[in-house]
Amino acid sequence: MSARTLENYTAQKWVKGDGGLVDIRCAVSGQTVAHTSSQGLDFKKMADYARTVGGPALRAMTIHERAYMVKDLALALSERKEELYALNPHSGATRRDGWVDIEGGNMTLFSASSKARRELPDDYLILDGPPEQISKTGSWMGQHVYTSLQGLALHINAYNFPVWGMLEKLGPTLIAGVPAIVKPATSTSYLCEHAVRIMVESGILPDGALQLIVGRTGDLFDHLTGQDIVSFTGSAATAYKLRSHPTVMANSVRFVAEQDSLNACVLGPDAGPETPEFDLFIKEIISEMTTKAGQKCTAIRRIFVPANLMDAAQEALIARLAKIKVGKPDADGVRMGALVSLSQRQDVRDKVEILSSQAKIVFGDTSYVDAFEANDNDGAFLSPVLLRCDDPWAATKIHSVEAFGPVATLMPYKDLSDAVALCNEGLGSLVMSLFTHDPQVAKTVLQGAGSFHGRIAMINRDNFKESTGHGSPLPVLVHGGPGRAGGGEEMGGVRAVKHYMQRTAIQGTPELIAGATNVWMKGAQITQDGAHPFRFNFGDIKIGKTLNTKSRQISLADIEHFAEFSGDNFYAHMDEVAAKANPFFPGRVAHGYLLLSFAAGLFVDPAPGPVLANYGLDNLRFLTPVSPGDSIAVKLTAKSRKKRNDEYGEVRWDVEITNQSGELVATYDLLTMNAIEP
User: Fold this and answer.
1) Would you call 656 a catalytic residue per the annotation?
2) Which of 72, 120, 476, 579 holds its CA 20 to 30 A away from the CA of 266?
3) How far apart are CA 106 and CA 178, in angstroms?
C-alpha cells in the first residue's frame, strides 16, 4: 500500500485537508501508509448540512425503511470486505483480529436492522409502554412516545476497532432517523475511511445521512445544540475534556461515553485445577490478553483466583503464554500482532513500569520480543506481560492504572465476598467474567457486583462451546458501564435506537392520541359498518375497525367436555366444594382457554381471505370468572399495523371478552398476518 492522503466526506463531496498533514505509520513496518488532515473544513457547514439535509431525508423514511437501508449497507460492506482485510495488517492486527472488527461490524448492522424490523413499528415514532388512564371517564389520558432527534450524532471512535466501532453506533443512529458525522482515531482512520467509501459508493444512503472527518474536529463542538448527541469511545481523560466543553454544558448536549476500564475475571471457589472451569478460565485469559494485542476496551486486566490456587494459575498461564507467537500479523502461525503504534507501545511500557512497583512481572519483557518475520525496532511489537500481586488490597495502582495492551495482573482473594469487593475496586467496568459451575456463586457475585459492571459473563463447561466469551460485546446486549467505564450505554438491541430519540409524554383524548400515534386507544373512535374486519387486506384495514359479536352461553356440559378433551381437570373447573373454598371463585368456573376458544369462534370469519394466520396473543389477562349459565361476547378492534414484507403484514387487534353484565372477562392483543394483496 503506497501512502495516500485520506479524504474527508462533507456535503456529498470527498475533500482533502488543505495543509497540516499527519503521517500515519504501519504498526508492523513503521512505514508511512497514509496522510490525514481536516484542516480547512467548514465544520459549521457540515453540522448544518446534517441537520437540514440529512435529518429531513431520514425522518421522511419509516423506521422499517431505515432498517432495510442499514441491512443493505451491511450487504454492501460484506461484498467488499476483502478490501478492508487488505488494509487490516497495517494496524498490527491479525486476520482473526480483523474478523472481529470488519465482519463483527457488519453483524451489528444486520442485528440492528433485524431487531428494529421485528420489534419496532413501521412508522415514524415508537410507543413507550401502555397508555396511562389519568381521568375518571377516560377523556384525558397519557402516552409516552419516542421521536427522532432533529440534530446530528457526532461519533468519536477509538483506534482499536475502526470498522466495528463506527458501525455499532451508526446502525442504531440511522434507524433512529438521525444523521451522523463520524470522527475515527487518526492511527487507523484509513480503515474507517475506506469503509465509509464503500457505503457512499453503494448509493444506499440519502444525502447528508453520513459525513466523515479524518482529522481534528476543529470548532465543531462550538456548533452543537440540544438536539445533537455525542457518542464517544476512548479514554476517560478525553471523555472528561469533551464532556466539559462549554457548548456541551450550556446546551445540555447528550453525551454517551464508553471508556476503557479495568475489567476483571474471577475463578469461582468451586473451580479447582481438576475442573473444566479452571482450564476454560486459563484459555479465556490468554485469548483476552492476545486478541488485538490486548487493545480492547473489554480486555481482562485483573485476574482473581482463590488464594490457594495462585501458583497453579500462574503456572498454567505462563505455560500457554510461552506458546504465543508474536510477529507479522499475516505470517503463518502468528497469534498476536503488533500494537497500533510505537507511541502506544511506549505508553504500555510506561504503565507496566507503574504496575510493577506494586506487582512482580512473572512472564514477558517489555523491552524486547522475538517478533516472527518482523523487526522489533520498526514495528510496535510487545511481549505479553503477566504480573503477580499477592496483596491486592495494598496495590492501589493495580485497580486504577490500565496498560492498554497484552497485560494482566494475577491476584488472590480470600473468599467470595472478598473477590466481589476486589472486582468493584476498579470503580466501574464494561465487563467482568466469572468461571463457575455453582449457581449460588453466580447469585452472590451478581448481587454484590452487578451495579459496578455493565455486563457479567458467567462461563462454565455447559456453555463455553457456544459462549462468545468475556470480551465480545453483542449487539443485542448493552455495552457500557458505570463509573470509570463512562456511565454510558450502547447497543442493547432496540435500546440503542432509542438513545438517539427523545422520549415525550403526550396527553389528550383517546382520539387525539390515536391520531397522533396511529395506534388505536381505548375510547377512541371506532367504525363498525361494512364487511367483517377479517375481509380486509393489510393495506385496507383501518385502525379502529371494530366487530361486536353475538353472545354465547357457557354451560356445565361445555366445561366438562373441555376438561375431558384437553385433560385440564383443575379443581376450580371440576370440584364445586373445592372451587367455592377458593376466594377467587364463586364455584365451578370455565377454563380460561375455553373462553379464548369460544371467543375465537365468535369473531373468526371462516372463509378463505386476506387473514393468513393467527400467530400469537400478547398481554392476556383473565379478569372475571365465568360460571355455568353465564354468557360471553367479544369486541374486536384493529389496534395497529406493521408491514413485514411485500407479501404480508401484522395486524394487532384489541380483544375484550365481556359477560352478560358487561364486565370484562378477559383482555388481550391478537396478532394476525394479513396479505398485502387480495
Assistant:
1) no
2) 476
3) 19
Instruction: Give 98's strand partners.
Output: none
- Spatial separation of the C-alpha atoms in residues 14 and 300, rounded to whole Å: 40
Beta pairing, strands 488-491 & 478-481: antiparallel
Q: Which of 258, 288, 425, 656 is catalytic?
A: 258
| Residue 644 near residue 650, CB atoms below 8 Å | yes
- Angstrom distances, CA of residue 498 to CA of 71, 210, 260: 18, 19, 24
Across the strands, what pairs with 596? none
CA diameter of the chain: 91
| DSSP per residue, 32-59 | EEEEE--TT--HHHHHHHIIIIIHHHHH
> Which pairs with CB-CB distance under 8 Å and at least 24 residues apart come from 510-515?
510/131, 510/138, 510/139, 510/141, 513/131, 513/141, 513/143, 514/543, 514/544
Q: How far apart are CA 375 and CA 368, in angstroms?
A: 11
CA nearest 147: which of 543, 512, 497, 520? 497
Do residues 142 and 507 make contact, with C-beta atoms less than 8 angstroms apart? Answer: yes
Cα Rg, the chain, nearest whole Å: 30
CA–CA separation, 512 vs 232, rounded Å?
Answer: 39
Catalytic choice (26, 192, 265, 297):
297
pLDDT given at position 20: 86
pTM of the model: 0.90
Question: pLDDT tens digits for 475-487?
Answer: 999 999 999 999 9
Contact criterion met (CB below 8 Å) for 381 and 326: yes
pLDDT at residue 1 tops 70 = no
As given in the structure block, the three cell numbers for residue 626 are: 365465568
Q: Indicate the helix (H) or strand (E) that contains 344.
A: helix 342-355
* Whether residue 265 lies in the annotated active site: no
Cα dihedral across residues 10, 16, 21, 27: positive or negative: positive
Identify the structural domains of the chain with CATH numbers, from first to last.
7-126+147-259+495-499 (3.40.605.10), 263-473 (3.40.309.10), 526-675 (3.10.129.10)
Interval 405-422: pLDDT, tens: 999 999 999 999 999 999
